From TrEMBL:
Compartments it resides in: Cell membrane
GO cellular component, one term: plasma membrane
Keyword line: Cell membrane, Membrane, Transmembrane, Transmembrane helix, Transport
Name used for this protein in its record: Probable membrane transporter protein
Biological source species: Rubrobacter radiotolerans
Superkingdom, taxonomy of origin: Bacteria
Pfam families to which the protein is assigned, alphabetical: TauE
Similarity annotation: Belongs to the 4-toluene sulfonate uptake permease (TSUP) (TC 2.A.102) family.
Membrane disposition: Multi-pass membrane protein
Transmembrane segment boundaries: 37-59, 71-90, 96-114, 168-187, 193-210, 222-246
Length: 247
């Protein structure tokens, strides 16, 4: 029989795949807070990265032409530096503290964007550098790589297809690098690999549903969805981290 922990993880993977298929991001934002209820932080970081590679490969296949490849490169280069830093942080610092701080900052930033207040520096050349580094660091340290990228693209008012294609391409490449970094540091186990293989079909089914939903929403609704979703999941992540730290 399937235990409640695995059933919960399968539902989380399906929900994460749906959001990722719709927006090009969000797999970690959905899956990480939920996976943490049943798995250790190191396992969660691996699962988020592994499922992200599979789902985003599929998203990139049908959105590559809309992707801003120049922006992807501008984000990916500093992200590589952040990925290495994040692996080291994961080895010595409790990720819960990072999740708490990041969650609060993301809630504030998303709230400002919902009020049409652009983030300082987002439109400058420094914007992708800061966002890419922050995303890479958070990916391996906490499994939550999306918020800096979402906030940057939303602040620059990317159209929904360009948003989806650019974020999916970035997260695909970044996840591959992140998994390699974790493996080289000996932070991936056989049990993690088997668990990822079990959860993957549920995530891919969700991706298919998300892709179908993309055609049904307007540009305005897409922007509102991405910002509200980011705000809510960041608040949830901060709340669960605070709760865990108080126990």
């Amino acid at each position: 029989m399937i235990g409640w922990e695995l059933l919960f993880a399968l539902l989380a993977a399906f929900a994460a795949g749906t959001i990722s298929g719709l927006t090009g991001f969000g797999l970690g934002l959905v899956s990480v807070p939920l996976f943490l209820f049943v798995y250790t932080p190191q396992t969660v970081v691996f699962l988020a990265g592994a499922i992200s590679v599979a789902v985003n490969t599929s998203v990139v296949r049908d959105s590559y032409r809309e992707a801003d490849r120049r922006m992807t490169v501008a984000l990916l280069v500093p992200s590589c530096v952040g990925i290495v830093a994040g692996v080291e942080i994961l080895r010595v610092v409790d990720p819960l503290y990072l999740r708490l701080v990041v969650g609060v900052l993301v809630v504030i930033s998303a709230g400002l964007l919902l009020k049409s207040i652009h983030l300082p520096g987002a439109a400058t050349r420094l914007g992708p550098v800061v966002s890419g580094f922050s995303s890479g660091l958070l990916s391996t340290a906490t499994g939550l790589a999306a918020p800096p990228i979402v906030l940057l693209l939303a602040s620059r008012e990317y159209a929904k297809r360009a948003f989806r294609g650019t974020s999916a391409l970035y997260f695909l490449l970044m996840s591959i690098i992140g998994l390699a970094a974790l493996a080289l540091r000996g932070l991936v186990t056989v049990e993690d690999l088997l668990l990822g293989a079990i959860l993957l079909p549920a995530a891919m089914a969700g991706k298919y549903l998300g892709t179908r939903l993309l055609e049904r929403i307007s540009e305005h609704a897409f922007r509102l969805l991405t910002l509200v979703f980011t705000l809510v999941t960041a608040a949830l992540g901060a709340a669960t981290a605070a709760y865990a730290l108080l126990l």
